[in-house]
């Protein structure tokens, strides 16, 4: 294990989740019995190498991430990253607007399905879209 | 034609292109002989209805747009919207960083192919990435 | 709101659903708290601007719509538009054949998953494929 | 080789191309040195087994085929099947309308790129969209 | 029905499932009321024509199949073909490694979602990844 | 830079290319002016972390890689990895068979377009498919 990159990744992950969630993600990975290195790669490479780069701030990286996930329709990760986006500073309205901006580029279905996930996450976090 | 939405769309399009380019896009559409309403739909709906919404600024909308296009690998539109992103205020570095942020979510190939287009556009505009 | 386009869209939507369902879709949108304009865009742009165009009839537009949704694998919308296709005049057999026609172009999995949705919808509507 | 299915496929293929083109496709396959069975599978399975089924006519099958290809953005096949669609009875206007119908489901870029191919094919065949 | 291709397909299918499962798949198809030819096409064309070809062995064909399904994110078929891959001789570790190999080409989300399915299948079959 | 992972990646890359090509890839990256870290990430993460894992050999990893690229239709990388597959020990026939195996899962167009690239690469390397 690459201790420095891993720690850098954990620190960055905490900015998108919380101290507790980040510890859970790292120590209680549901896939650790079959793919024990997967979580490490996510932490070291995605969070340690990529998310920590200068040039875009946390909110902008969350917006980019949510956008690609909605485009692909990968629903579990949309839910995860709407949560991380909110934690890292995106407002509910910015998340919704980012999805509506996709309509001319991916059509209505992907956007509609993603907004249902946003609705669920906002209810769980007791948040509202300020319009 | 819906004159108000159309004009609103043209005005917004100018913020992403230039007075001259926007006029060209509207008046010299290469597809006007076979689909004369397509350009109008793009101007009225995409630029008039969606891009003009509050909640995200021009730069953020350009970042979202480039992200979905790279995810889909639609190369002619990547070129168009890298140009529009630069005009609307994204720096070369922000565009490149937005693409690198996609590596953990779409893998290297789509990002590599998109960065070749960025390279070409930056050369055409005589711009450099400040690192 | 663009009253004329909206009304034109509602009228077209009724041809794919029913008086009652169209009213429900317009007035009880599940996403109205977070994205109050989404339903309006679907009605005005998709149904008002696009579905009302001459050149293809309702059945043909439903066939095109179902085809793109199966290709993308967006399941909630496959269910919605199999229902709308049946209401607008497609026979169960035409819907099934349209999906089988996709096998050489998308392979078996997408088609198989879509046909399971067709089966469910036909059972709900007490319809059979006449072979 | 399954002579009956193959001949059935060749006969169907002729309805989408011409006697001469069908012979060329079958006898001068560019991939025959590396994958000599590929053309046979296309003729036997796609054209022999699928295209010959009752329930949808040639024009409708062409419309379905073009729709899935535009959704996927596979450009060489869009060109091939716009040609086959025209030969099998789709009008230029029906092909264009089928693509515009996709805007709400795939967004503008895929549709725009496909319409450029339609434009090229119509010019090659000296055809116009009657509007 | 093409008795020879069908029987060849059933025989090959048994190598990926079991005598009993293969009979079930052929005789109790859930889609037989709406698309009675679909199962036949899968058996005759996919298993009879393609899987029986020389050049790659069963394990290699299973690895290729799982890879394309993970790339597309078609989850019901990922489950089916992880099972068939295990029956045809792929080890749990080979399946997991094949998926981790995809990270640089499709990103983490598709791989993570597929590995959750592998985990479920391994538990059902009481198998472990030997690391 | 992580010297150990980088060197491990370069060594692995040489098994898929050649001493000379690997040096060129590392030292003359066409994207180095705009994204100087991209090549490093490919070498360190893709080749250093992933390709070097036990559980699948070089040929199997190349087969998995080619399969996902054909499924996605990313043509520049299909060409690159058909070449790397051949260098790492896949035979022309195995590459072709791997692509034909995809027909039931992605349909004919993606496979046909990929096989044209295989044909070109085999001609450049003066190789033939032994059937």
From TrEMBL, chains A, B, C, D, E, F:
Domain Carboxymuconolactone decarboxylase-like: 36-119
Keywords: Lyase
Protein's UniProt keywords contain Lyase: yes
EC numbers, comma separated: 4.1.1.44
Cited InterPro entries: 4CMD/NDH-1_regulator, AhpD-like, CMD-like
GO molecular function: 4-carboxymuconolactone decarboxylase activity; peroxiredoxin activity
Broad EC category: lyase
PANTHER family linked to this entry: 4-CARBOXYMUCONOLACTONE DECARBOXYLASE FAMILY PROTEIN, CARBOXYMUCONOLACTONE DECARBOXYLASE-LIKE DOMAIN-CONTAINING PROTEIN
Record-given protein name: 4-carboxymuconolactone decarboxylase
Source organism: Oikeobacillus pervagus
Lineage of the organism: Bacteria, Bacillati, Bacillota, Bacilli, Bacillales
């Amino acid at each position: 294990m690459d201790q420095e990159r891993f720690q850098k990744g954990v620190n960055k992950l905490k900015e998108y989740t919380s101290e507790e969630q980040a510890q859970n993600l790292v120590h209680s990975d549901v896939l650790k019995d079959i793919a024990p290195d997967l979580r490490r790669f996510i932490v070291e490479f995605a969070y340690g190498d990529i998310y920590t780069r200068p040039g875009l701030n946390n909110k902008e990286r969350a917006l980019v991430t949510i956008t690609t996930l909605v485009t692909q329709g990968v629903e579990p990760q949309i839910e995860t990253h709407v949560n991380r986006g909110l934690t890292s500073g995106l407002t509910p309205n910015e998340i919704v607007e980012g999805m509506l901006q996709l309509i001319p580029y991916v059509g209505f279905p992907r956007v509609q399905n993603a907004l249902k996930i946003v609705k669920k996450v906002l209810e769980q976090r007791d948040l509202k879209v300020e319009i």
